[in-house]
Design brief:
2 strands
Length: about 220
């Protein structure tokens, strides 16, 4: 039987939009920062007006939700963590575009090319902060405090491995030779860490125990 991921993707989109909605500021004006984050997600155009643009495959959050279900859990409980994983992934893309001087992402201008590097750093940092806050929303879905803490620990360790992998990737640009082993170490952090942690976090939310994911 083929699983239709559409309901989970639709639910994830709802959670992502909720996370990227400006908070109440006691009547104070809200900065354009949230709209800039929404632009990167494909929900606004360069003038920050509502739009629908390519927004990625959502592979990492889908892995989290489906692993939770496969481990015997309620996939809807994993949605906040799935949203956090997607926000963290997009944070890394915003900063990656800056570090690589990439002017386009998904056939559109990158955040830094529109608003400059300092503002784009704020856009990425905002998504980084919201990604961590998303995990606290697991408590509202009935996930135990111990499971939330374990999931959050894996999430933070993964982010460190991802950052180390990105550093290694940039360091390769100044080297004439890169070994296969060095490449696997780099890609295991830059790309593999987030994919691995997504699956582990989904299983943890379902109540699974055992060997924890650790970066290689």
């Amino acid at each position: 039987m083929t699983l239709d991921p559409t309901p989970y993707l639709d639910a994830l989109e709802t959670d992502l939009r909720a996370m990227l909605s400006p908070p109440e500021h006691c009547g104070a004006p809200v900065s354009p920062l949230y709209r800039m984050m929404q632009y990167h997600m494909g929900w606004r155009d360069p003038e920050l007006k509502p739009a629908k643009a390519p927004s990625g495959k959502r592979l990492r959050p889908l892995l989290c939700v489906l692993t939770c279900m496969d481990a015997g859990g309620d996939p809807s409980q994993a949605l906040p963590a799935a949203a956090g994983l997607e926000l963290l992934h997009n944070f890394s893309l915003v900063h990656d575009d800056i570090e690589d001087s990439s002017s386009t992402r998904r056939h559109r201008p990158t955040a830094w090319s529109l608003w400059g590097v300092p503002v784009a750093c704020n856009v990425g940092d905002g998504m980084f902060s919201l990604a961590h806050l998303a995990f606290l929303r697991l408590l509202d879905r009935g996930v135990s405090q111990s499971a939330v803490l374990s999931a959050l620990r894996s999430f933070i360790e993964m982010n460190l491995a991802l950052t180390e992998g990105q550093y290694q990737d940039m360091s390769f640009e100044a080297r004439l030779q890169v070994s296969v082993e060095d490449y696997y170490t780099m890609i295991g952090g830059k790309t593999g860490a987030l994919l691995s942690a997504a699956s582990e976090i989904g299983a943890v939310i379902a109540g699974a125990t055992g060997n924890r994911w650790m970066p290689t």
